[in-house]
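Subject: design request, 364 residues
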């Protein structure tokens, strides 16, 4: 369960936001997080809004002001609409980085949702929970979460579009609301929003680090002691832009907590709790400590292995069996965006990890 102070914090944010603006009677007055700004919206409908900035937002970026003042409009969506001229300041087009002044009249139009170009596909989903606002998936390894160059089909989004034909508009498009992602070969629990209200609410919970996630991973070597913390900065690799690294020109501090679940002859099964959510954080941190995740083809360079075994033949045998990195998003806990109830879900360990552990026990 969430600590009471965290639940109260979310509820207070909702109450403060709802009372900070006078909204049009037709606006959606759901129990969602509406706004964190004291900017007063003087007119708002399903597709248009107008408000005057007050002193509390003076000097802040335009995209930040809009996203914190307009329900269901994330910062990325606001920036896109500003760039397209759909949001103006004093009837003039500005850049998303424009610094708002007290008294500025900010007017915008949010277009009706348009169908995305990605097609629904009948891909099997392992659903842990579903209601009209959210869906929690136990993602199988090998599937990409969101379409991108090279992966326009066969993704989790394609599967969700097929499974949820009645999706409402999210960010100006009829699509599932991906609020967080897992790497292609990482399995486990993943929550998806079904509408704008849920998307804005859960996104804020992630931003405020109120969503709690636990992972399990198999790492090379005998990881000691029984528990610990890895505090190393993470950023883009200085020479390979597709990779992350602890040796970076633009570091962002990251912390990973871990504890041993079970030890095998050449591998350790650990439980992981993230204090921050950097890209590839677990894989980068484990590799930096010379205990890369088993099967990691990106960060698991053999020169970083810390294996205590004299039987190289058996090492080769169990390594060949691994087809992806052995990392699984085990548990996730968050507050439901509408009911405000704390929800926790556990994704069972996938079969390939179970089979690999059985092989390790035989090896031992």
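Subject: RE: design request

Done. Sequence follows.
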């Amino acid at each position: 369960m969430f600590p009471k102070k965290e639940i109260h914090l979310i509820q207070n944010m909702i109450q403060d936001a709802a009372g900070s603006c006078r909204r049009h009677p037709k606006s959606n007055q759901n129990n969602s997080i509406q706004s964190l700004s004291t900017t007063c919206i003087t007119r708002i409908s399903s597709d248009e809004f107008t408000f005057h900035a007050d002193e509390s937002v003076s000097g802040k970026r335009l995209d930040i002001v809009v996203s914190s003042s307009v329900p269901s409009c994330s910062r990325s969506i606001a920036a896109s609409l500003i760039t397209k001229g759909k949001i103006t300041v004093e009837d003039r087009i500005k850049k998303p980085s424009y610094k708002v002044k007290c008294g500025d009249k900010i007017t915008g139009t949010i277009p009706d949702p348009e169908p995305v170009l990605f097609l629904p596909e009948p891909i099997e989903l392992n659903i842990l929970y579903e209601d009209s606002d959210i869906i929690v998936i136990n993602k199988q390894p090998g599937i990409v979460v969101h379409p991108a160059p090279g992966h326009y089909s066969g993704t989790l989004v394609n599967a969700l579009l097929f499974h949820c034909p009645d999706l409402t508009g999210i960010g100006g498009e009829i699509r599932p609301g991906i609020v967080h992602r897992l790497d292609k070969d990482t399995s486990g629990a993943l929550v998806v929003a079904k509408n704008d209200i849920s998307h804005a609410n859960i996104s804020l919970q992630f931003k405020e680090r109120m969503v709690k996630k636990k992972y399990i991973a198999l790492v090379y070597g005998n990881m000691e002691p029984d528990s610990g913390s890895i505090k190393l900065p993470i950023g883009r690799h200085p020479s390979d832009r597709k990779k992350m690294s602890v040796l970076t020109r633009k570091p962002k501090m990251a912390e990973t907590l871990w504890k041993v679940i079970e030890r095998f002859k050449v591998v350790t099964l650990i439980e992981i709790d993230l204090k921050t959510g950097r890209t590839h954080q677990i894989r980068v941190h484990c590799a930096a400590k010379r205990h890369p995740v088993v099967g990691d083809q990106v960060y698991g360079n053999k020169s970083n292995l810390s294996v205590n075994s004299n039987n190289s033949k058996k090492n080769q045998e169990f390594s060949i069996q691994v087809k992806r990195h052995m990392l699984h998003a085990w548990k996730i806990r968050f507050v439901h965006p509408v009911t405000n109830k704390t929800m926790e879900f556990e994704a069972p360990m996938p079969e390939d990890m179970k089979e690999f552990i059985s092989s390790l026990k035989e090896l031992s």
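The two ends are 37 Å apart (CA to CA).
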